[in-house]
TrEMBL record:
Record's compositionally biased regions (Low complexity): 519-534, 549-587, 620-644
Top-level lineage group: Bacteria
Keyword Transmembrane in annotation: yes
Lineage, uppermost ranks: Bacteria, Bacillati, Bacillota, Bacilli, Bacillales
Domain called PPM-type phosphatase: residue spans: 3-238, 13-234
SMART domains from the UniProt entry: PP2C_SIG, PP2Cc
Name of protein: Serine/threonine protein phosphatase
Residue ranges the record marks as coiled coil: none
Length: 657
C-alpha cells in the first residue's frame, strides 16, 4: 500500500577493481509497507565462501519474514548474520563490514558494523553520514583527528565491531530519520569512499538526475584517478522521488493517544505508589505476625498444648512464604513437622491405634533434642502410657484369638490379665474388656453346665436302671447325686423330679405302715408289757446335699406299728447299726423337724435299754411306748415323719455304703 503511493528508485555498481575476486555485495528488497537495502564488504580471504553475500542473505531472509523498523529486531538480524558467519568459518574466519537501511517509505533507520557507510543528500547538501565502528572514528569522536581525516587515516581499517568477530556483536542502530521528496541516499564500501572525496560525492549527487547517473559519475571519478591498486568498490544510490504522505490527523491522534497513555501512567503511577505503601505496611504486619507466631508457638509447646502450637507455626510458615523469607520458612517448617508428629500421635491414640501412635511419639522424641521447647519428660510419659496401652491391646488380641479358637478358659485368663493391666494404665475402653470377659465366662459356663447336665442325666439313667433292677438303695444314691448336680446348675425342675424319684424309691424300700390301733388297744398293749423301742440317733457327721434344707440334729422315736417295724440295714461293716424306717408315709419335713426337736431327747432308762440291746449289727423296734410319757414318749408330730427325713436317712445310708 505504501509502496504504490511512493517512488523509490535504486541503482548500484560493484566491481573487483584490480583484484580477481569481488568480496563486496549489495542487495535490497521492496515490500508493500517496508523496504530494506543492505551493503557488505567481505574482509576475509576465503575464495569459496562469499562472507558478504552470506551475511546479506541472512539479514534479508529475517527481514522478509518479519518486516520491521524496530531497533531491537534490527540488532537481532545482524546478530543472526554474525552467528551464521561464525558457524561457517571452517578454513578461515569469515568476517565482513555491513550496513542495513530500512524504511516505511516515510522514515528511515539504519544499523551497521565496520566501515561501510551511508550518505544522505538533500537539496545539494550532505545532511549526514553514518559513523564507522573503527579506531579512527573513535579518535575523531574524541576530537583527536578531524572528521575529514577519517578517509585516509592509518587506523581506518582497524575495526572495533564487524560481523564474524570472536566476541559478541554490538551493532550501532540509529534513531528514525524522516525523509522528504527528492532526498538521495548513497551506500558504499571503503573501496569507493577512499577514492572519492565528499566534495566529489556532493557534486555527483547535485548533478545527477537519476541514481544510475550518480553511481556512474562516482565510478568515473574513482577510475579517473588511475590508482595503481584499486580495491573492491560498490556504490548504491537510492532516490526518494516521492515519499508516502501520511494522514495529517494521524499525528494528532497519536498525540492524543500519547496524552491518554501519560494520564493512565500517572494514575497507575499513583496507584502503584499507593500499592507500594500498602505492600510495605502489609509486609511489616506480616513480619510482626510471624514473630508473634513463633513466640506464641513456643509458649504453647512449653505448656504442652500441641494443637495450638501447630496452628501458630503453620500461620508463621505461611507468613514466611508470603514474605519469601527462606530462613524463617525452614525454621517454621521444622517446628511444624515436629509438632505434627505429636498431634498425629495424639489423634491415633484417641482412635485406639496405639502402635502407630507409639511410632509417632518415638520419632518426636528423637527430634526433640534439637528443639528445647518440647519437654522430653512429656514425650517419655506419652511413650510409656502408649506402651502400656499396647500391652493391654495385645492381651485383648490374645484373648480374642483364643476365644475364636474355642479356648474359652484361656480367653478368660487373658481378659482378666488385660482388665488388671487396664486398671493400672487408665485404659479408656475397660468396659469393652469386661464385655469380652463376660462373653468368655458365659461360653465357659455353658460348656460346664452342659458337661454337668450330661453327668447328672447319666446318674439319673443309672438310678432308673437300678429302680428297674429293684436295687432301691443304689438308685437313691444315684438320684441324690444327680439332684445335687441339677441344683448346682440351677435346673430346679430336675431337682424336684429327683426328689419325686427318691420318694418313690423310699416308698419301694419301706412298705406302707398299717393304721394306728384304737386307744384301748394301745392301753392293752401297754399293760401287756410292750417294750418301747429306743430312739434312733441320726448320723450328723455327713453334710446334707446342696440345695436341701439342713436336717434336724435329733431323730424322733418312730411310732409303734402293732409291735413290728421294718429293719433296713444301713451299712455292711461290722459295728454298723440298722436304721428304723418310718413307714407311715405321712407328715412333712417341717413336722418331722418339729417332732425331732420336741421328742428327740432320751431318758436315762432309754439309754440303759439301748446299752442292753443286742450288738449283732441290727436293732429291732419293740412295741410303742404308752401315750403321755414325759421323756421317751412320742408326740403327735412324731407320728407324722416327713418324707424329707426319710430322704436324708437314705442319703446317709448311701454315703455309709
Amino acid at each position: 500500500m505504501r509502496r504504490d503511493n511512493s517512488e523509490f528508485v535504486t541503482s548500484f555498481v560493484s566491481e573487483a577493481g584490480t583484484f580477481v575476486n569481488n568480496k563486496d555485495f549489495f542487495a535490497f528488497v521492496e515490500m508493500d509497507d517496508k523496504a530494506c537495502w543492505v551493503i557488505a564488504d567481505g574482509l576475509d580471504t576465503d575464495r569459496e565462501i562469499a562472507s558478504a553475500e552470506l551475511a546479506i542473505q541472512t539479514v534479508l531472509n529475517q527481514f522478509q519474514q518479519k518486516p520491521t523498523m524496530s531497533r531491537f529486531r534490527l540488532k537481532r538480524y545482524l546478530r543472526r548474520a554474525h552467528e551464521r558467519l561464525k558457524m561457517d568459518s571452517t578454513r578461515v574466519r569469515l568476517k565482513a563490514s555491513l550496513t542495513v537501511v530500512v524504511t516505511d517509505y516515510t522514515r528511515i533507520r539504519w544499523a551497521g558494523v565496520g566501515n561501510t557507510r551511508l550518505y544522505h543528500f538533500r537539496q545539494g547538501r550532505l545532511t549526514f553520514k553514518s559513523k564507522d565502528l573503527s579506531l579512527a572514528q573513535q579518535l575523531a569522536n574524541e576530537e583527536k583527528i578531524s572528521d575529514e581525516a577519517l578517509d585516509y587515516h592509518d587506523e581506518r581499517h582497524n575495526l572495533l565491531q564487524y560481523v564474524g568477530q570472536p566476541e559478541p556483536l554490538e551493532p550501532y542502530v540509529s534513531p528514525k530519520f524522516r525523509l522528504e521528496d527528492g532526498d538521495a541516499m548513497l551506500l558504499c564500501t571503503s573501496g569507493l569512499w577512499e577514492g572519492v572525496s565528499r566534495v566529489e560525492m556532493l557534486d555527483a549527487a547535485e548533478e545527477a538526475q537519476s541514481p544510475e547517473q550518480m553511481v556512474d559519475t562516482l565510478e568515473d571519478v574513482l577510475l579517473s584517478k588511475q590508482a595503481k591498486v584499486i580495491r573492491n568498490y560498490t556504490a548504491a544510490a537510492i532516490f526518494a522521488n516521492k515519499i508516502f504522505k501520511e494522514d495529517p490527523q494521524k499525528k494528532w491522534r497519536i498525540i492524543r493517544r500519547i496524552l491518554i497513555m501519560v494520564l493512565l501512567f500517572a494514575l497507575l503511577g499513583g496507584g502503584a505508589w499507593y500499592m507500594m505503601v500498602r505492600q510495605a505496611a502489609n509486609k511489616a504486619e506480616l513480619v510482626q505476625g510471624m514473630i508473634d507466631n513463633r513466640q506464641n508457638g513456643e509458649v504453647y509447646l512449653r505448656d504442652g498444648n500441641y494443637d495450638q502450637a501447630f496452628k501458630e507455626f503453620s500461620d508463621g510458615r505461611n507468613a514466611a512464604i508470603r514474605l519469601k523469607d527462606r530462613v524463617n520458612k525452614q525454621l517454621f517448617t521444622n517446628k511444624q513437622r515436629l509438632v505434627q508428629l505429636v498431634v498425629d500421635g495424639d489423634k491415633l491414640f484417641k482412635e485406639g491405634n496405639y502402635p502407630k501412635a507409639l511410632s509417632m511419639y518415638e520419632i518426636a522424641l528423637k527430634e526433640s533434642d534439637s528443639h528445647k521447647e518440647i519437654s522430653r519428660a512429656d514425650m517419655e510419659e506419652r511413650i510409656e502410657r502408649t506402651k502400656a496401652h499396647v500391652k493391654v491391646l495385645n492381651m485383648i488380641k490374645e484373648g480374642d484369638m483364643k476365644f475364636q479358637s474355642g479356648n474359652y478358659l484361656g480367653a478368660q485368663n487373658a481378659y482378666i490379665r488385660a482388665s488388671k493391666a487396664a486398671a493400672t494404665s487408665s485404659y479408656e475402653k475397660a468396659d469393652v474388656i469386661q464385655e469380652k470377659l463376660l462373653a468368655a465366662q458365659e461360653k465357659l459356663y455353658g460348656i460346664t453346665k452342659g458337661t454337668k447336665q450330661l453327668e447328672a442325666e447319666k446318674l439319673e439313667k443309672d438310678g432308673d436302671k437300678q429302680m428297674t433292677a429293684q436295687d432301691y438303695l443304689v438308685a437313691i444314691e444315684s438320684y441324690v447325686s444327680a439332684q445335687e448336680i441339677y441344683q448346682e446348675i440351677n435346673m430346679l425342675e430336675k431337682v424336684l423330679g429327683m426328689e419325686r424319684k427318691i420318694s418313690k424309691a423310699l416308698d419301694k424300700m419301706e412298705p406302707p405302715v398299717p393304721p394306728a390301733p384304737a386307744p384301748g388297744a394301745a392301753d392293752a398293749g401297754a399293760s401287756g408289757g410292750a417294750v418301747v423301742p429306743p430312739a434312733v440317733q441320726p448320723n450328723t457327721s455327713l453334710p446334707a446335699p446342696n440345695g436341701n434344707p439342713p436336717a434336724s440334729t435329733s431323730q424322733p422315736t418312730p411310732p409303734s406299728v402293732n409291735g413290728t417295724n421294718v429293719n433296713v440295714p444301713v451299712g455292711g461293716n461290722e459295728g454298723s447299726t440298722s436304721r428304723t424306717t418310718d413307714t407311715t408315709g405321712t407328715g412333712n419335713k417341717a413336722a418331722g423337724e418339729q417332732a425331732g426337736n420336741t421328742g428327740g431327747e432320751r431318758t436315762q432308762s432309754e439309754t440303759q435299754r439301748d446299752s442292753e440291746s443286742p450288738t449283732s449289727g441290727s436293732r429291732s423296734v419293740g412295741e410303742s411306748e404308752p401315750t403321755g410319757s414325759s421323756s421317751g414318749s412320742q408326740s403327735t408330730g412324731d407320728q407324722a415323719a416327713s418324707s424329707g427325713n426319710r430322704m436324708e436317712r437314705a442319703q446317709q445310708g448311701g454315703r455309709e455304703r
